[in-house]
Amino acid sequence: MANASRAPSTAGPRLPAGKGTYALVVGLDTPCKLNVGKLGPVELPAGYCLYFGSALGGLAGRIRRHLRRQKKLWWHIDYLTRVAAPEEVWWNESAGRAECGWAAAGLLLPGATTPAPGFGASDCRCNSHLVHVSARPLAEDFHRALGPGQPPSIGVLQTARTPTRRS
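Now predict its structure.
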C-alpha cells in the first residue's frame, strides 16, 4: 500500500465506454473510521477493500468519478474514495447488472469478510458490496472466483496509487 495522499491517474489503458460491472481495489494502510451517510458509522480494518458496482450509464464516466477525490458524496463508496484512492479497477463490459455476483465471488477470496453490512447494497438483497481482505487481491484470482459461465476476461486499470510490488 502506498501513501494515501497521492492522487490517482487514469493514464494507461483506455477506459471502456460501454455499460458493465466494475470492482474498485482500495488499500488502507491503517484502520479507517467513516461516517457513511444514512448507513452511519463504518469501521474498516487495514488491508484491502473491494467495492463492486454496476455502471449502466457507462463504465468510463463512473470509473473516472470514483477516481476523483473531489465530488459530491452520493454513493456509499464516495465516502471511502474521498479518503483512500483506488489502486486498481477491474471491469467487464456487459448489458446487465452483475455486481451482486461479483460481490459473492469476492467473498470467495482467501480471508474475505464483509466489514460493513449494507455498504453499496441499498438497492438489492446482498449483505454488502464491500469485501475486505488482508492481502492484496489479484485480478486473476478474482476472475477464477467468478467461476464458469462468467466473462472470459476482465479489464484491469492500475492507478498511480498501485504499488510496484505485491504484498
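The longest strand covers residues 20-28.
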